[in-house]
Amino acid sequence: MASCAPFKVAFNGQPEDIYARVKVMIDGNGGTLEGDTHSGKFSVSVPVFGTVKGEYTIVDKEAVITITERSPFLACQTIENFIRKNLDKVDP
Predict the structure, then answer these.
(1) Of all residues in the chain, what percent are helix, strand and coil, respectively (each to 5)?
(2) Closest CA to 41 of 56, 28, 52
(3) Strands 39-46 and 62-69
(4) For residue 60, what are the contacts with CB-CB under 8 A and spacing of at least 6?
(5) From first to last of its 92 residues, what are the pLDDT tens digits of the chain?
(6) How far apart are the C-alpha atoms of 61 and 13, rounded to whole Å?
(7) Are 63 and 18 in contact (CB under 8 A)?
(8) Looking at 2-85, which runs of residues are DSSP E strands?
(9) Do residues 42 and 22 make contact, with C-beta atoms less than 8 angstroms apart?
């Protein structure tokens, strides 16, 4: 399994807002989220590519996400783009 360099995602609102969005996004895709509004870990199954695992920290208006495990056939940029594109669309 491969990993990715950390990336930052800026957001509006409070840390509770981004945490709620991430939780809905991960739960909605059959994954697990362990943590709180400061930091934690997640795991989600991706059809064909297996499982993506990562860690996050939330500081002020920014989430720092690090993908710790992924299929080498699933590009880091693809994961980052998916998160950036869909995070704002999720209602907490």
Answers:
(1) 30, 40, 35
(2) 56
(3) unpaired
(4) none
(5) 799 999 998 888 888 888 888 898 899 889 999 999 999 999 999 988 999 999 999 988 888 999 999 999 999 999 999 888 877 766 66
(6) 7
(7) yes
(8) 7-10, 32-35, 39-46, 50-59, 62-69
(9) yes
Q: Are 79 and 70 in contact (CB under 8 A)?
A: yes
**Region label for 30, one of left (φ > 0), alpha (ψ between -120 and 50) or beta (otherwise):** left
Show Cβ contacts of residue 87 under 8 Å, excluding neighbours closer than 6 positions.
Answer: 9, 11, 18, 21, 22, 25
Residue 58, both tokens: 């939330």
Q: How many CB atoms lie within 10 A of CB 19?
A: 20
